[in-house]
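Sample entry (542 residues):
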Amino acid sequence: MDCRGVPFTRGLLEELKTAVDNTFGEALFGRARFPELADFTSVTFTGEAFFWLAHFEEDARFYEVTFNGDAVFEEAVFQLGAAFEHADFQGTAWFQDTLFGSDADFDHAKFARDALFSRAQLLGEAAFHAVTFTSDAVFVSAEVEGRAGFFESAFGRDAIFAGARFKDDVAFPDTTFNGPLVGPIVCGGQLDLTQAVLTCPIRIRIAAAHILLQAAQINTALTLDVRYADINLLDAVLSQPVAINFHPRPFPFNNDLIPEEPLTGQDPQPSIATLAGVDVSFLALSGVDLSDCLFTGAHHLDQLRFEGHVPFADPPAPWTRRRTIAEEHHWRALPLPGRRSAQTRGWEPGPAHPDPAATPGPKDLAATYRQLRKALEDGKNEPGAADFYFGEMEMRRLDRDTPFGERLLLHAYWLVSGYGLRASRALAALGVAITLTMVLMVLWGLPDPTPKQTATGTMPSPSNRIHLVLDKADPTLSGPLSQRWTLKRAEKAGHVVLNSVVFRSSDQDLTTAGTWIEMFSRFSEPILLGLAALAARGRIKR
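Predicted structure, serialized as tokens:
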């Protein structure tokens, strides 16, 4: 049936459908114009259906239409809605360079062969709910202005979205991918893969504002190259290696860079929102921001792999500079009893703020820090692991359930050396200890100067022997404190104390108090020196 170039009114189309009893053989509607509603509901095309360059000025309805041959809608124009609900495409569906001026509805459609939407423009919403793509689904360089939904759809082979741009959200929840999802894809809104099932090894390149992988089942090796996106992995199931990488430059396609509007101007570094409920033993991260990531509830954190620079949150000034996790910010921001407002200032509150029952406490945070520390140590990043060791010790020190004696020891360890990680603090403590010991030595440790011992008497005859016994007097100290501040005594005290630091005993006579002061100095000050060396070693260890 050759209807090329014919203008079809609604009445004329109904007459034609009645004449052929809703069954068309080969239908040639190329360049046909439909100024009124084009209703092909329940029509069967037994041969090829050509709507090449057709122009639909009003709604076009292809409800429950069966295309036994190819359906060719290349370069067609749908000015208003295009409805292909429950359509059955037995042949190849050609929608290349097609313009959809409003919503396009393909809900429950079936594509037995290739579905070609390359360079299609959809100015409204695109609905592909519960669609079955038995063969390839090709959306190369397609552009969608409104939301696009592929809810509960199934891709039997390749889902090719290379160069596709979605100005708003695109959703694939409960969708099954039996072939690769081919990018790069640009999504100005949210890319939703909630409960999606991935079964074929794939590499996905995506630039999006948000990516939802909640409860997704990733049963294949997956490499995710991402720009901009905040990624939510809540309860995702990773049964094969998954790598999430930051792609520093815009994605190229066909020798050109894909425009990234409306993302342009934002920070392109992606981030992860949560790993709760995820077994991360298969997960590797590179260049992904974890400043706001929630780790509580993740499994096998000690096996998480960091294969590149991964930023974490910084504590607010003037707190010690180190890498922290978001949960510590949330806990420190809580207005707990006995906690001053100055102690919470600058820390970021969490989603459950100010409820302490819903905010992970020091016990959970210590365990999280311990596992992350091991992950970095296994990756031979000892300096990076030191920050997580600091966080673990901080949580143990601040946990009120920690035994008092252990907390006291941890407070001292933190004060004098930052848990053996702050060389400057250990050296400062050593300087204070040396100065204090010198002062004590000057005031109470050094005795008064003793006169030289002499012996006087008359020598007997040369044939007689003489035996002299000279007893050394005990060191004594007298005089007021003000007279003990002399340069000579300070020099002697410095000599005694500095020798004590390296476990050497001076030959200087000391008072009883001075002996005890020296013993304490010989015990404590070398420890501080060792802590300073340990801290320096921790920062340069390979």
